[in-house]
Design a protein that fits this description.
The complex is a heterodimer of chains A (about 250) and B (about 425). Chain A is an alpha/beta fold and about 250 residues long. Chain A has 2 domains: about 1-75 and about 160-180 and about 190-245, 3-Layer(aba) Sandwich (Rossmann fold); about 80-155, no CATH class. Chain A contains 11 helices and 10 strands. The termini of chain A are far apart. Chain B is built from 11 helices and 21 strands. In chain B, the strands form 5 sheets. A 9-stranded mixed beta sheet of chain B has the order 4-3-5-6-7-8-9-14-13. The longest helix of chain B is centred in the first third of the chain and has 22 residues, at about 15-35. Chain B is globular. The chains are: A alpha/beta (about 250), B alpha/beta (about 425).
């Protein structure tokens, strides 16, 4: 459904992606894990048109979307939920959600939008309770739910999730990740960027491991979670060995 | 016909190439980070991992040779610390420094999957009783096939090698349905069955997967006729993985390569430039998923050609033609691949001669003959006829046991082969004598 071929991109003057290739099949959850500064978020920003790629190709639904503006991609069903959520703090939960439907509200029937709103409320009942509350007054977990809910209002085929666990308590993270897994079952494809590798690998089918702008490993999440290097580096099991000059014995 | 991994083995080429590119970039990044040998090679060629932006860019990367692996003995080529290695195999052979390969847990999982696909391609299922007559030990053959057959769910008999009469007994009693061995061992088994008075028809065998050495078409048809089975050819390289790199399906129209794990090229053995699809050349393999000892552009020295057209069996993976030749000093006589190093090794073990020799290949009335000129040790006096005859006989027997054919042996005076070197060690007169 989504393919990246040797994407090179700069973050300011820094070469942030040094030729990244990855793919996400329909109905898959794919995770990108790796340390801070590896380029994970830049991958999402490059896909969603926020950062223009210097070279390489991005293909979505069989179409070359390299360099497409974000709005066009949202219309095609490729929607990013940004890190830090970027909600409108002075607007209510309901208003934030309706903004998500904005792109299609002209074309879509009111009844359809209403049905989608009900769906989001059923996924996140807390948002219904708080629908008249200002977004800025929500807890971190609720804000994350609102950010995902707003993205769902645009009826995405594929969600790009940037650090959904950021700043959340473990229990809240768990419930957010449960929702992500459920979304996949309902037919939304997900590309997930996470520093919380443990949570990400638990719901993803496949994963890529990034390091300094490069992918150094890929495979089934079930395999990667048992990989000693991943365990050391990202799952807090044992100490990370500096690998520049490996001592093999 | 069962296909073990329908998603991968029937993948569209564009999807497969996407997967290959992703994995190629990841493995290149890893070897650059973790294997000083490769970092050095990359730096010498002035290339960085990010220069690999397409599958075609593979051609920019350095080759890896058997000598590189020997120089790296034992652990220099390893990309992970030893504590992540759960299995170590090594090449046998007389070489002072063998090739050592380590496997991580994940490597072993992938290996079993690769072998399961190949067994499945030959028609083996979980209902089969698989008789594995490959050596279980440092050699990759036994264990490699074993775990693949277990993954498949077959009933595996790890017979290993030797005690052929007992093996035949086991095949009868345990009702082995699939045989895994070298083709020459299968033919040897036929001979022993004759001696034992066992009719192959009384066995339950229906399929055989052969590997470990080249299988000529005449060998294949002899095996198929005598054992009444389907015989498939399989390809593996111990330095790269072991068995499981490629194997024939029941149609026997080339060996299906596990392309999601191995990226193959065929290069001109002299210029080392990649050749177009279909042309014969040296097979070069890059591992795409290996963690323990990844290989970038490993020169196998095996001669083959690649066909990327989908097979009638439904698989879309590329197929390689059966390997019948080597780019190095090996020569082929009567379907037998002979390495001069093997001859040297066997001569070393025989007393009263020097391990100095010359091979002459000749053709008489359409049949090939091998004459082995061997230098006598200085203390051997040539008038002891009886001893010389015995010595010739010993050489013939050893040669037959190791190589699989009987040479004509000519004992020559001490020091008379002093001018023999690599260029004239093997004299092939067969083309002229046709």
């Amino acid at each position: 459904m989504l393919k990246l071929q040797s994407v090179v991109a700069y973050y300011g003057r820094i070469l942030a992606l040094k030729g990244v290739s990855l793919h996400v099949d329909r109905d898959e959850i794919v995770a990108i894990v790796g340390p801070n500064g590896a380029g994970k978020t830049t991958v999402l920003n490059t896909i969603s048109g926020i950062v223009p790629p210097r070279s390489g190709k991005i293909i979505f639904d069989g179409k070359d979307i390299t360099g497409y503006p974000t709005e066009a991609l949202v219309e095609m069903g490729l929607v990013q939920v940004p890190e830090g959520r970027q909600l409108f703090a002075e607007m209510t939960v309901y208003e934030n959600l309706m903004l998500g439907a904005y792109r299609r509200s002209r074309a879509a029937k009111k009844s359809e939008v209403a049905a989608d709103l009900e769906r989001v409320y059923s996924i996140f009942p807390i948002l219904k309770e708080r629908r008249t509350q200002l977004a800025g007054t929500l807890s971190g977990g609720e804000q994350q739910m609102l950010a995902i809910g707003r993205a769902l209002m645009s009826k995405p085929k594929m969600l790009l999730l940037d650090e959904p666990s950021m700043g959340l308590a473990p229990l809240v993270t768990k419930s957010i990740f449960k929702v992500i897994a459920d979304l996949r079952k309902e037919g939304t494809t997900v590309l997930l960027v996470e520093q919380n590798a443990k949570a990400a690998l638990a719901i993803a089918k496949r994963a890529y491991v990034m390091e300094t702008g490069r992918i150094v490993m890929e495979g089934l999440a079930s395999e990667l979670v048992r990989n000693p290097e991943i365990q050391r580096a990202y799952l807090g099991m044992g100490y990370r060995q500096i690998m520049e000059q490996p001592r093999n014995v | 016909m069962p296909i073990w991994n329908r998603k991968i083995e029937r993948m569209e080429r564009s999807e497969l190439e996407q997967l290959q590119l992703e994995r190629l970039q990841a493995v290149v990044n890893r070897v650059y980070r973790d294997v000083p040998f490769y970092r050095r090679k990359f730096e010498q060629l002035n290339i960085a991992p990010e220069d690999v932006q397409s599958l075609e860019d593979l051609a920019k990367l350095p080759f890896t040779t058997k000598e590189d692996l020997r120089d790296g003995y034992p652990y220099e080529m390893f990309a992970v610390p030893l504590r992540e290695i759960v299995r170590i195999h090594s090449s046998s052979g007389a070489a002072a420094r063998p090739i050592v390969v380590g496997y991580t847990r994940n490597d072993l999982r992938h290996w079993a999957e690769q072998v399961a696909r190949i067994l499945s391609a030959a028609g083996v299922t979980k209902d089969d009783v698989v008789h594995i007559a490959f050596d279980y030990g440092l050699f990759t053959g036994g264990f490699g096939m074993h775990y693949g057959a277990e993954r498949l769910g077959a009933s595996v008999i790890p017979v290993s090698v030797g005690n052929t009469e007992r093996q035949i007994q086991i095949m009868q009693d345990f009702r082995s349905t699939a045989l895994v061995s070298t083709p020459s061992y299968a033919l040897y088994m036929c001979k022993v069955m004759d001696e034992m008075g066992v009719s192959p028809a009384s066995l339950y065998l229906r399929v055989g997967l052969f590997g470990g050495e080249p299988m000529s078409e005449s060998m294949r048809s002899r095996i198929e006729d005598r054992l009444g089975i389907l015989a498939t050819d399989n390809y593996g390289v111990s330095a790269v993985m072991g068995p499981g790199i490629a194997g024939e399906c029941e149609l026997k129209e080339g060996l299906h390569i596990n392309e999601d794990h191995f990226l193959v090229e065929v290069v001109d053995p002299k210029t080392l430039t990649p050749l177009p699809e279909g042309e014969q050349g040296e097979l070069v393999i890059t591992t795409l998923t290996k963690e323990g000892v990844p290989m970038i552009r490993y020169r196998t020295r095996d001669i083959t050609s690649i066909d990327r057209r989908p097979c009638r069996c439904g698989r879309t993976t590329a197929r390689m033609s059966p390997v019948r030749g080597r780019t190095d000093d090996m020569f082929i006589i009567r379907g037998v691949n002979v390495a001069p190093s093997e001859i040297e090794a066997l001569l070393y073990q025989i007393e009263n001669i020097e391990p100095k020799y010359q091979v002459v290949l000749e053709r008489e009335n359409g049949l090939d003959y091998l004459t082995l000129n061997v230098e006598l040790a200085p203390h051997m006096v040539t008038d002891q006829m009886q001893r010389l005859v015995e010595l010739e006989e010993t050489i013939k027997q050893r040669f037959h046991r190791v190589i699989g054919l009987t040479p004509r042996v000519k004992l020559v005076e001490p020091k008379s082969l002093e001018n023999v070197d690599r260029s004239n060690r093997v004299i092939d007169l067969r083309e002229k004598q046709q």
